[in-house]
Amino acid sequence: MQRATGKNAARTVGGGRYAGSVSSTAPGSSPVPFAGEDGRTDNDPAPAGSIAPGPTPVAPGAAPEGRGVFVAFEGGDGAGKSTQVRLLADRLRTVGQRVLTTREPGGTPVGERLRDLVLEPGDAVVDPRTEALIFAAARAAHVEQVIRPALTAGRAVVTDRYVDSSVAYQGAGRGLGIADVEAINAWATGALHPDLTVLLDVEPEAGRDRRADRAAEDRMEAESDDFHRLIRLTFLQRAAADPVRYLVLDATLPVATIARRVAERVLTLADGPLPALSEAGTAAAPVAEERADVILVPESVAEHR
């Protein structure tokens, strides 16, 4: 299910288990864990489909023709994103796709360190502007070292959070301005957009209840319900402004129902042509039927655009 995509068909990436023939360890360097098709590293025995804590950079090598589909899951804390990432990856593998699952912030050794710094800073003060730049730096490494090489090598990439989270949390939630946060992330990612963004919509109160069994909340999760309401509103506004790229689903629906709807949409994308990686990743989507498990963005949200 790989497609030739013009100039991208000739691009070369890969290495370690991406290419199957190129070592991930440079001469004279120490061996490092390497991300596999299921997002795991060689030192991580987690089950297939689990989210990797830190894939390492991909070395140059030969790439197959075409590129993989890029899917991002977004939504408030407690929406069930990590579960749906795993289920989508499992479904794609059943139809022969090679899949890399990952997360943000994180996804690389540098990104994981930055994740700890910004989410669990201890006594350190992390002001909003610094917070936004840390997330952008982690994302730059993630795209350059993991996401773009995997896509070019023909892998499907499924990520738990991407740029929309920064726009919602830092641009709106922290009051830095959506345009500015979009700009720094466009530069950080080389304007790489997902082919599909799945927004799992959840009321802040419901998300908090779902997180009740977690050991402790991080800085973002511990914010007020008003903060999380603004995050939700921003996600919905972005989805309303670009309905082709977004699939908005009620996160309180049965897990299997959400997984089915996501798989239907992603498999349609994977069967069609995808844009070059240097271009915006908006891909054509089928005209959606009106279904009970698809959220229609309310007019009150659209009016705030």
Task: Report on this structure.
- The protein has a domain at 70-268: 3-Layer(aba) Sandwich (Rossmann fold), CATH 3.40.50.300.
- Helices cover 38% and strands 9% of the residues.
- The protein is built from 9 helices and 5 strands; from the N terminus they run E-H-E-H-H-E-H-H-E-H-H-E-H-H.
- The longest helix has 25 residues, at 128-152.
- Phosphorylation of dTMP to form dTDP in both de novo and salvage pathways of dTTP synthesis.
- Belongs to the thymidylate kinase family.
What is the secondary structure topology, with strand pairs?
Blueprint: E1 70-75, H1 81-94, E2 99-103, H2 109-119, H3 128-152, E3 156-160, H4 163-173, H5 178-189, E4 196-201, H6 204-210, H7 225-241, E5 246-250, H8 255-270, H9 299-302
Parallel strand pairs: 1-3, 1-4, 2-3, 4-5
Helix pairs in contact: 1-8, 2-3, 3-4, 3-5, 4-5, 4-7
EC number: 2.7.4.9
Region (Disordered): 1-63
GO molecular function: ATP binding; dTMP kinase activity
Give the key terms:
305 residues, alpha/beta, Rossmann fold, disordered N terminus, ATP-binding, kinase, EC 2.7.4.9, nucleotide biosynthesis, ATP binding
